[in-house]
Amino acid sequence: MPRTHLLVPPDDPPAGPVASAATGLLSARVVHPKPTQLEEELQLKEALQQEAAHPGEGAGSRSDTEQELPTIVGYQHRIVLRPDASPTVAGASPAVRLPSGLHYTPGNRIPVADALSRLPLDTSDSPDIDDGEDIVALVSAEMSDEPDTLTEERVRQESQSDPVFQRLRDTIATGWPDSARRCAKEIQPYFAVRHELQAREDGVIMRGMDQVVVPSKLRAQYVEQAHLSHDGIVRTKQLVRRLSWWPGQSRDVTEKIRNCQQCQASDKVLSGAVSQAPLQPVPFPDRPWSKLGLDVVGPLPDVPASARFAVTLTDYHSKWVEVGLTPTVTTADIIRILATVWSREGYPDELVTDNGTQFTSREFQSYLKQRGIRHLRSSVYWPRGNGAVERFNRSLKSWFIAAVNQSEVPFQQYLQLQLARYRSSPHCSTGRAPSELLHGRIMRLQLPVFAQQPPPDPIVRLRVEKQQRRNKRAYDARHATRRTRISVGDWVRPKKQVHGSKRRQSRQLQLTSACSTGYVSPDRAGAAT
């Protein structure tokens, strides 16, 4: 705000201001609005010079003979008197002297409000600056409860309470009519798949063995959960169809994705280029984790410094993907990320890369040779030679765009969620989820899994139980264990695992339940709960 000094006549009561002086703030003063001593001195000097140039003028002026000497009103400055009784601003450079006859009065003793400080006169050559009044807007966001998590129990409850499903269960139990026209209007969309529908005892309706028929209240949430990774229409449909079904499912998924803002921002619809030569498909490997594709993506914009580059790995058989983030992409960085993956999945037979210096270095070649991995390189300037990993890289880039545009989930966590959904979604080439082909089971994420999982191996169970019995006999013999004499209702002092000379038992607690085995160690009798 401009600094203002007033000159008022010494009337009692005051008749009004004689003159006012204002100094507009320059750009440097706007950036640093805190007044300095020198600024106050210059402002006071300007006020005095204007008064000297126009004596006797102002709102409260009178004739020269009647005009009394005015009083200068200071704003955030100090006045001192030199030994020669000539008043000057403290520390002024150059010195600012008050004209003879003027005297200084502190602002707190001036009854006239400093209103002109908000309406300065346009007398300076400084550029006009709009001081604009600060406006504070209170924005209230309507907080809505998070939707209930999709669980098997919630699907059962909605299936039991849905009136359409009640009619559908009755029709399945009594038998379907000969034509859809003879069915009730609300169950006519189910007539085409009537031979595949079956009603379970808990009220859930299944289509086949793996697909649950979703009630109308949960369909929008099913689509929302399946599209959390913002995949395309085909992949999202495959994920939803893998575990669920309802009439109009394809239409609901298509409408959801077409109206998705993040999908529109990432512009996933790319025009296909005309091939110059017939496509040469890559032979499909016989088993998972036999042939892998390796590539580097980056540098990526608007991401954390630790994630400027992404090292991607794709299994040609199962389509399982691995992503490692790194600030640099030297050969040592590539080997470090690969070593982490090898510790979980083991070594592949073949590794396909491009001709980057990280992959053609002697260090990388020696690393693969020591582990018996055959290194295949694609043609120079022809990334399609490693098409499996290049196709995944396109999806990965769209994930990075979505991660930057959203702020609900941290960057690293968002990437892990996208990877989990990608690995659990059926791939368009294999028709199976990568987790099924590589690990032999369906990953359970947001959508309930009603499909039958691989049965446990009875030989493994028997072997584990046999080993547990052997360990129990050895432990009981070594520690001389006995059956506990503690019963429900007794007061016990559980032993605490502490170090040093601190108390090793807690306060007394009443026993409310007994151990299933009924055995405790003599020195741990108080720990039975």
Automatic annotation (TrEMBL):
Residues 494-506 have a biased composition (Basic residues). Residues 284-442 form the Integrase catalytic domain. It is an enzyme of class 2 (transferase). It comes from the Eukaryota. Residues 1-20, 48-68, 494-529 are annotated as: Disordered. Pfam families: Integrase_H2C2, rve. Its EC number is 2.7.7.49. PANTHER family: INTEGRASE CATALYTIC DOMAIN-CONTAINING PROTEIN, PROTEIN CBG26694. This is RNA-directed DNA polymerase. It comes from Amphibalanus amphitrite (Striped barnacle).
